[in-house]
Amino acid sequence: MKLAVVTAGLTQPSSTRLLGDRLGEAVARRAGAGEAAEVRNVELRDLAVDIANAFVTGFPGARLRAALETVTEADGLVAVTPIFSGSYSGLFKSFFDVIDNTALTGKPVLVAATGGTARHSLALDHALRPLFAYLRAVVVPTAVYAAPEDWGGGKDAFTDGLSERIERAADELAALLANRAPRLPGKAGEPDEVVPFEEQLAALRPDGRSSAAGNGHRE
Predict the structure, then answer these.
(1) Taking all residues of the chain, what is their mean pLDDT, rounded to a whole number?
(2) How confident is the model at residue 200 (pLDDT cuts 50, 70, 90)?
(3) Residue 114: CA count within 13 A, CB half-sphere
(4) In degrees rounded to 5, what are phi and psi of residue 198?
(5) Full-model pTM
(6) The domain 2-184 is classified under which CATH number: 3.40.1130.10, 3.40.47.10, 3.40.50.360, 3.10.620.30?
(7) What's the pLDDT score for residue 7?
(8) What is the C-alpha separation between 70 and 100, in angstroms, rounded?
(9) CA angle 138, 32, 7 (to 5 degrees)
(10) How many CB atoms lie within 10 A of CB 51?
(11) What are the φ and ψ backbone dihedral angles of 28, each rounded to 5 degrees?
């Protein structure tokens, strides 16, 4: 099981990278229950010049090409960006502009972001989800946003704490990964087996059943 964690933090140390690490570790604990889970980090800060050169020349250099392969060959993806001016960073968007627009088709993705104020949390739904919907990825229901006051904080009367959101999102991504058909050796040129959408939804339900299961009774 291969998991790619893409982070677009600009500072070092970076809260964006910290959030990506926590999400990657949480997913790996669950996805690795039946097999070894390999987590590979792609830190875009180190690839900023390579990404700019790819736009100018039309060809990715060796380092950027390796990062693109890490993402496209992974079974699942965690994508984390800082929020600037109400949306994802330019570096984050540029990286996903370089990726072929069919490379993430059907790939399970967990989106997350960090920002200086909780008011930017809506960027997850009005910016990140549409981006990955355009790339035809399968985005898990729970997106994770971390403002400065979230670090080390617990839940309040209205929302779960950061740790709870991380665990819930990790559960959802791990469930999709568990139902994703594995890539078999020698089958690289063939498309992955498509898991029916109702089965993917069933994997996210606590009882593991689809809404059509049983006699239709709703609690």
Answers:
(1) 84
(2) low
(3) 22
(4) -65, -30
(5) 0.78
(6) 3.40.50.360
(7) 97
(8) 13
(9) 55
(10) 20
(11) -60, -35
Evaluate whether 186 touches 207 at the Cβ level (below 8 Å): no
What's the pLDDT tens digit per position in 72-101?
A: 999 999 999 999 988 999 999 999 999 999
Q: Is the peptide bond before 13 cis (omega within 30 degrees of 0)?
A: yes
In angstroms, the CA 34 to CA 40 distance is 19
Q: CA 152 to CA 19: how far, in whole Å?
A: 12
Residue (of 74, 87, 7) closest to 37 by Cα position: 74
Q: Residue 188: what pLDDT?
A: 43
Contact 3, 38 (CB under 8 A): yes
**Contact call for residues 139 and 117 (beta carbons, < 8 A):** no
**Residue given tokens 């990404």 in the structure block:** 51
Q: Which of 28, 39, 41 is nearest to 170 (CA)?
A: 28
Q: Is the dihedral of CA 95, 93, 127, 135 positive or negative?
A: negative
Pick the closest to residue 177 from 156, 152, 195 (CA basis): 195
Which pLDDT value is given to residue 201? 62
pLDDT greater than 70 at residue 189:
no
From residue 16, how far is each of 19, 127, 170, 187, 214 by CA, in Å?
5, 17, 17, 35, 43
Q: Are 92 and 81 in contact (CB under 8 A)?
A: yes
Chain center to CA of 211:
25
Q: How many CB atoms lie within 10 A of CB 184?
A: 10
Pick the more confident residue, 191 or 151. 151
